[in-house]
């Protein structure tokens, strides 16, 4: 017999698994559009750069609405939402200004969101499937610092952001697969 607490944990994990699958698909599609369109600065690049952190913020808000959340996780998740929305606004401007500015803002966001992802995944590790999110958060911090450094070297492309998105998508997919295995094992 399933207890209410186990049902809540299972429901929360299933919600998280679906969210991870959606985020993986979005990241790959977004990166493909970015790489195929090869935009310079302008409205298309600004739109693409605004959409990515807004989807990140929306996904984290979805997580916040899921059941069984502990108060400690909410702080890091709300920090991620606030940072992502602020960055979306900044990228809307930077995407029409210069690649260097956009890449610098993207790098600062990648590092900051990587820290919140890493902390959230460490706090959520008991739900299973979080090791890929820990790795993804740590890699995001390193990539963010790399984007910041690259932004000072007169970059001509945002292609690295596409690679970053694809790698993040892979980590979300791996987390979804791991959570599915955890849920199946718990159902036995």
Write structural notes for this entry.
This protein has helices at 4-37, 43-65, 71-97, 99-123, 131-151, 159-187. The chain is mainly α. The chain has one domain. It is elongated, with a radius of gyration of 17 Å.
Question: What's the structural blueprint in terms of helices and strands?
Answer:
Blueprint: H1 4-37, H2 43-65, H3 71-97, H4 99-123, H5 131-151, H6 159-187
Q: How many beta-strand runs?
A: 0
Low-pLDDT stretches are 1-8
Please state roughly what percent of the residues sit in beta strands, choosing from under 5%, 5-15%, 15-25%, 25-35%, 35-45% or over 45%: under 5%
Query: What is the total number of structural domains?
Result: 1
| Helical segment count | 6
Rough outline: elongated
Overall mean pLDDT score? 84
Q: Helical content, roughly? A: over 70%
Radius of gyration, in Å, reads 17 Å
Distance between the termini: 11 Å
Element-by-element helix/strand order:
HHHHHH
Largest sheet, in brief, is: none
Structural class: mainly alpha
Write out key terms for the chains shown.
188 residues; mainly alpha; 0% strand; elongated; disordered N terminus
Task: Please give a quick description of this structure.
This protein has 188 residues and is mainly alpha-helical. Helix content is 85%, strand content 0%. α3 packs antiparallel against α4.
């Amino acid at each position: 017999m399933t207890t209410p607490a186990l049902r809540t944990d299972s429901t929360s994990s299933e919600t998280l698994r679906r969210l991870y699958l959606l985020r993986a698909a979005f990241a790959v599609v977004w990166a493909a559009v970015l790489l195929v369109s090869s935009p310079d600065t302008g409205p298309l690049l600004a739109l693409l750069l605004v959409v990515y952190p807004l989807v990140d913020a929306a996904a984290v808000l979805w997580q916040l609405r899921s059941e069984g959340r502990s108060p400690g996780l909410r702080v890091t998740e709300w920090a991620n939402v606030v940072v992502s929305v602020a960055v979306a606004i900044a990228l809307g401007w930077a995407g029409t200004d210069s690649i260097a500015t956009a890449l610098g803002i993207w790098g600062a966001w990648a590092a900051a969101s990587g820290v919140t992802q890493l902390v959230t995944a460490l706090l959520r590790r008991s739900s299973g499937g979080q090791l890929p999110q820990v790795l993804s958060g740590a890699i995001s911090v390193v990539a963010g610092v790399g984007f910041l450094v690259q932004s000072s070297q007169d970059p001509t492309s945002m292609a690295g952001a596409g690679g970053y998105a694809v790698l993040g998508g892979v980590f979300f997919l791996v987390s979804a697969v791991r959570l599915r295995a955890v849920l199946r094992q718990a159902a036995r």
